[in-house]
Specification:
The protein is an alpha/beta fold. The protein is about 30% helix and about 25% strand. The chain has a single domain, classed as Rhodanese-like domain (Oxidized Rhodanese, domain 1, 3-Layer(aba) Sandwich), CATH 3.40.250.10.
Length: about 150
């Protein structure tokens, strides 16, 4: 099944009209702490090891599978849409059925010249929070028993 693609404003409407849906923010813990869609939970798909160096989070699938049911509607976002698409593909491969990738993510999608081609969640005026608390990756790991 094809992974749905939505711009941030469309993803916001999906979340509003589907009370059981959740925004899964797959950015790093530091990115999430600086601001994220209100109501999102954080489970990073990769860890940044250095400039331009990313390593897949070895616990990503284990945490997601333990804290979210495979039939739950997941709206998956990152900074611009690339990592979240990769996360969607990984989740689909293990049986998650209702996945939406947020094109433009939190910060916006840019073309090769740096111009914004899809406005991100933050700059679309959608609800943003800086409170990680029970939404943080560490809280999700605890919930997963890891």
């Amino acid at each position: 099944m094809a992974i749905k693609q939505q711009k941030p404003s469309e993803a916001f409407q999906t979340l509003k009209t589907n009370p059981g849906a959740i925004y899964l923010d797959v950015r790093t813990e530091a990115e999430f702490a600086q601001g994220h869609p209100a109501g999102a939970i954080n489970i990073p798909v990769v860890f940044i090891k250095g400039p331009g160096q990313m390593e897949v989070n070895p616990d990503f699938l284990a945490v997601v599978e333990r804290v979210l049911s495979k039939d739950r509607k997941l709206v998956v976002g990152c900074l611009s849409g690339g990592r979240s698409m990769r996360a969607c593909e990984m989740l689909e491969a293990v049986g998650f059925a209702d996945l939406t990738n947020v094109q433009g993510g939190f910060g916006g999608q840019r073309d090769q010249s740096g111009a914004v081609v899809v406005t991100g969640w933050r700059d679309s005026g959608l609800p943003v929070s800086t409170d990680a608390g029970i939404a943080s990756y560490q809280a999700q790991r605890r919930k997963a028993g890891l």
